[in-house]
Amino acid sequence: MKSIFRKGASLAIVGGTLLSSLLIGTLEVLALSQEQILQKLAPVLVFTINNENGQTVIREIRNQQQNSTAKVAGIFISQKDAQDFLNKMKTENPQLANNMQVVPRSLADIYQLEEANKNKPEALNFAYVPTKEQVDSALTVLRQSGQNIQEFNGVPLFVLSGGPNKNYLAAQRGNQQIIPFFFSKAEVQAEAERIKKQQPDLASSLQIDVVPLEGLIEAWKNRKEEWLSKIELIPAKESRDLLRTLLTEMQQNNPNRPASGNPAAPTQNPPQNNQSRPTNSPANNQQRR
After folding, report:
1. Where is this region: Disordered (predicted)?
2. Which residue among 65, 223, 254, 275 has the highest number of C-beta atoms inside a 10 angstrom radius?
3. Is residue 266 part of a domain?
4. Are residues 66 and 159 in the same domain?
5. Following CA atoms 140, 152, 148, 216 in sequence, which dihedral angle do they give, to the nearest 10 degrees?
6. What is the mean pLDDT of the chain?
7. Beta bridge partner(s), residue 45
8. Is the pLDDT of residue 177 over 70?
């Protein structure tokens, strides 16, 4: 988690002059508001297992040391993982699980539930379940960087860094500068290969970093650093495709409602060739001076 602050602070210094004209008259950079955090989380689909009444299935986990019981709701990052878990439940206890189903939810909705529950005496806990593939990829990245690590706690996000100061790389999307954080190691790797071809001067310094989603959300809530507002989450392709399908179905069922009216409407795609340019490129650095 420390790396996200170190790299980000470096980017904030590099980008300071670029943004200085926008910050004139501002006394301080504020942490993201709840509304801004919700907007960033809205395009990300996660999956819960719900009963026939539409309620999320909750497990009670006993803590023997503290002599207490915690209520936990599983939040799956992958629809397949959620379905596999439900199928296992149906095999082990068909009478209980046969009427259950996997339901897609916006990560923004889950975040709101977490915030509403956090100060309650018997708060509901949310356990995020990342895919094994991405956790294994995160461990590989960290070990290749020299860290002696045996497990990764949380949902891994992958981001590119490069240049002499190993800053996180930003991309240009329309008139916005964004820092893409990917849920998929394969997609960030593909982005790295594209950048190497377009900007060979960055090739030798490019590397993939990994940070936990949970740590990023805490940073959005508590840290007053301008660069954090530029981060955008790029869901895995299966999640983006499902989101498009759901939005299309909603539009067909309610043609008078614009797609943008749904909180999950922004379908985040990886930056495309004609949209993305790392801020660490010589041309962009020149523009900052």
Report:
1. 250-289
2. 223
3. no
4. no
5. 90
6. 78
7. 106
8. yes
